[in-house]
Amino acid sequence: MNSPTSANQKVFGYTDRLSARPGEQIRLHISCEGVDSYAATVVQLHHGFDGSAGPGFQETVVPTAVDGTYPGRRYDCRPGSFVEVTDPAGTLKDPAGFEVRAAIFPTLPRDDRSGTLGAYRISHSSVAFHGEHQAVLGTWDAETSTGWALTLEDGRPTFVWNESGQPCTLQLDTNLTAHHWYELIVEVPAEGGEVTLGCRPLKHAMDLVAPPAARLAAESATMRTAGPRTSSDMPFRIGALAARADTRLVAESAFNGKIGGVTIRRRDGGADETVARWHFGRSERADGLLLSEVVDESPNGLNGCCVNVPVRGVSGPAFQGRIEDFRLAPDEFDAIHFHDDDIADADWPLALTFDIPEDMRSGVYAFRLSAEGRDHHVPFFVGPGQRSRDVAVLFPTATYLAYANDRIAFEADSMEMLLGHTPIVHSEDLVLQDHPEFGRSCYEIHNDGSGVVFSSARRPLITMQPRYRASFMSEGPWALPADLCITHWLEEVGCEFDALTDEALDLEGYDLISKYRVVIMGSHPEYMTRAELDALAEFTAAGGRLMYLGGNGLYATASFDPENPHVVEVRRADGGTRPHQTPFAERRHTTSGESAGLWRNKGKAPERLVGVGMSAQGFDRCTYYQRLEDSFDPRAAFIFEGIGATEHLGDFGIIGGGAAGSEIDFYNPALGSPPDTLVLATSGPLSDSYLLVTEELFEQLPGLGGTEQASVRSDVVYAALDGGGGFFSVGSIAWTGSLSHNGYDNNIARLSTNVLRRFRDPESLK
Amino acid sequence: MTRTAGDRVAELLEVFTQRSMARLRAEFTEEVVALHDADPLWILEDGANRVLRILRSQPIQGKHLIYATGPDGPWCLGRVTHGVPGNLVLQPGTYGDYEDAMRAVFHERRADYLESNAVLELPQRKGSGS
Questions:
Q1: If A134 and its partner were Cys, which of A140, A255, A352, A733 is the partner (CB 3.0–4.6 Å)?
Q2: Looking at the partner chain, which of B41, B66, B81 has a beta carbon nearest the beta carbon of A621?
Q3: What is the pLDDT, as a whole number, of residue A87?
Q4: Which residues on neighbouring strands pair with residue A678, listed in sequence order?
Q5: Hey, which residues 61-120 in chain A have their CB within 8 Å of chain B?
Q6: ipTM
Q7: Separation CA A1–CA A404 (nearest Å)
């Protein structure tokens, strides 16, 4: 027996954003491991899947000023979210005379997580947790033992400071119980005297029974202090401390749980003044969103900034249990949930910049970084330049990020049961296992058992490697590699296209796509924003033609942080297919104000826009399509030119061996498939690994699998709308994997090309 | 010794697991083996799928994964082993087809759970934290 090693991956990188336009600059951050130099070049990505059943991996070098060999070094990527306070006057450096109060809700006070969590029954974390030191707030510098901090040490409230050059510790005996609110109070004399540390359980509107059941009790302790105290050079942080790593200050002793109601008062010689009162529920933005800025309500203006996306808009110690929107009752949402494994920005120093030439063609590119014979690609999209084309591909970058760095095959008991086969992993997965610091996907749970709701582009994205194959796909491509099957097909048929991304469409709306005749959606555009859905609806209503060449699309709510669009937010509601569930009253996106969940549950079912909506998912084997009566309607004749009346469509492909499968959608007039939608084809037999989605279930009924449930199917539909536009939808992630079969001489490629040709024709669809 | 909620949940799950394993022994017939050997990705028999679901739902620690050594294979078997490089320990031998690797996983589990009488020694499903 032996362990495969991923140590031959020597260089990693990420960009400041996933897309940019000609004339703009994109910034690259790089870390090397075990090598002191790397080669960098820009490549255009044409095709990702590198198995012999397809066209193979294809990239072309684009000569740019980036080409070259550069010195490299290793930089830490340190997860852990916190608030860093801007304190130029050093008000918080010495706690003399301070009374510090903080309400805390520890979620993992000790290393004792147990049980199976989330939809996939995650029983093990492959991200190491070292929770013996968890910081609530302070300036403590562990390296020099200076400053001060309020912490949990192996679950026990602790106050630490430096006195006469020596570290001093005051600690309570109470081991805090997870998922209860406590108030911690520290009183520090202005000069000599007694330091007091107290802890008391808080009554909470949602937790009236549990405190006595858990036998929670108050406790306090004192310790003589003579001063003077020695300050540190570290910034004041809430939720973590600071530690030096190369030239940066990273997170240290990160907290797992909520912190709220943080107040510091100074009581000195009869004076009683507020030094700081951070209100985590209050926003100074007109729209009330809770983004990075943290407001200090004291006269000192000690505002803070969230780092590594802790979760805001969560219920605090004063939550009353009725209001679910943080904007309507800020005082009840005065809390932030911190996690030791949060990461939104690896914060590596800038390595290279790339000024995108004005004449660079829109498309999919990557920085190819090479060291010791192994490549690491950092993909990016070049958006449209001055000369736009008539066809655009909308790359589902929100979904790429939601799945980014997914590692559940190594953590979840039920993953294999969900798939219907043993997961197949690859060297990239092992790289990810060896680099837990690169952060989690929105399909995982944090170390403390809460669901991951943020993802970011500013970290190495191992799953966005162009050749990557997800463990659940039976060796087929997924996400970006699957969408490269679309772009390669477009190149094959000589169709130039512009590359658009979710964050660009979210920001620019309909204006971004108004000039295109055809917009093609990717293989799995699961997560979308309201602005995107509205833009696409306006597009088809105004004569645009939409080709939805994927499955489980336009499905659930995503939001981009308006101040940090490299961050996407995906909270989970209490209905629909979901990997975990966000707690009550915490399901409102703080970056947009949107409620979490499926668009169908918010009056915007995908059926209204593309005629189909999610029906099932399965990962064992895909199937073909068979033609239905509507496929012989004269209005659909252009679609089936060159295709026989009885042909099976797509009984081949690199995703599960068929064009219909993986995650699939069905025609559902009850949810708004337009009346004149033609149902052209439906999928062949599917196994019982394909189960009807939970949002279609209002009561448990036996027989939910593909062999018994009529709704477990993928339907290909077409509709012409008033105004000349329309849509063509395939409702299957696997469709793109069939395009290249037999050198593109097959009925899926032919059918897709027929639709594309007609959709590019300015004559109105009928 | 103070019993925790985790201990109680583990005990309840163990009761279920023992019942589940008893059923597995009864339903794990040669017909199931033949079905899986014939096509591990296309099994439509209810009883066979029930057996497979039990085998596939075991705790992740020590569980099989299939590792692809190249774009067209070959594939080999590995066991999730947290703490080693890649958190995966590979087993000797390779397979030219990933479906053959799936068959091999199935037969190893069959041996583990039936032929070696290891049922009583099954690991409890209590999570080990991190």
A1: A255
A2: B41
A3: 97
A4: A718
A5: 111-117
A6: 0.95
A7: 30
Q: Single out the residue of A240, A248, A255, A256 nearest to residue A76, CA to CA.
A: A248
CA dihedral A488→A635→A390→A363, nearest 10 degrees, is -20
* A:391-430 residues touching chain B, CB 8 A cutoff: 409-417, 420-426, 429-430
Of the candidates A542, A547, A524, which has an alpha carbon nearest to the alpha carbon of residue A756? A547
**The pair of three-digit structure tokens given for residue A143, joined into one six-digit string:** 């390296």
Residues of chain A with pLDDT under 70: 1-7, 111-115, 128
- How far CA B16 is from CA of A315, B19, B20, B124, in Å, comes to 36, 5, 6, 11
Q: Which residues of A touch B127 (CB under 8 A)?
A: 113-117, 122-124
Q: At what angle do helices B30-38 and B46-56 cross, to 10 degrees?
A: 80
**pTM (two decimals):** 0.96
Q: How far apart are CA A188 and CA A193, in angstroms?
A: 8
| Ordered strands of the A350-355 beta sheet | A11-15, A25-32, A350-355
Question: Which residues have CB under 8 Å from A561's CB, separation 6+?
Answer: A291, A292, A567, A568, A569, A591
The predicted pLDDT at position A706 comes to 97
- A129 interaction partners in chain B (CB closer than 8 Å): 129-130
DSSP letter for A445, please.
Answer: B
- Residue B47 with chain A: CB contacts under 8 Å: none
Beta strands in A594-690 (DSSP E): 612-617, 625-627, 663-667, 678-683
Cis amide prior to B74 (ω within 30 degrees): yes
Q: Do B44 and A687 touch (CB under 8 A)?
A: yes
A 616-635 → B contacts, CB under 8 A: 620-621
Dist CA A419 CA A413 (whole Å): 12
Query: Is A123 within 8 Å of B65 when comparing Cβ atoms?
Result: no
Interface check B94 vs A, CB under 8 A: no
Whether the Cβ atoms of residue A30 and residue A12 lie closer than 8 Å to each other: yes
Contact check, Cβ <8 Å, B66/A447: no
Query: Rounded mean pLDDT of chain A?
Result: 95
Which of A106, A21, A119, A56 has the alpha carbon at shortest distance from A452?
Answer: A119
Residues A617 and A690: beta-carbon distance below 8 Å = yes
B28 shares contact with chain A (CB less than 8 Å): no
β-partners of residue A569 are A454, A559
**Three-class DSSP labels, A672-691:** CCCCCCEEEEEECCCCCCCE
Q: Tell me how far apart the alpha carbons of residues A226 and A524 are, in angstroms, rounded to a whole number.
A: 64
Nearest CB partner across the interface for B90, out of A3, A116, A122: A3
* Residues A133-146 pLDDT 10s: 999 999 999 999 99
Gap between the Cα atoms of A338 and B84, Å rounded: 29
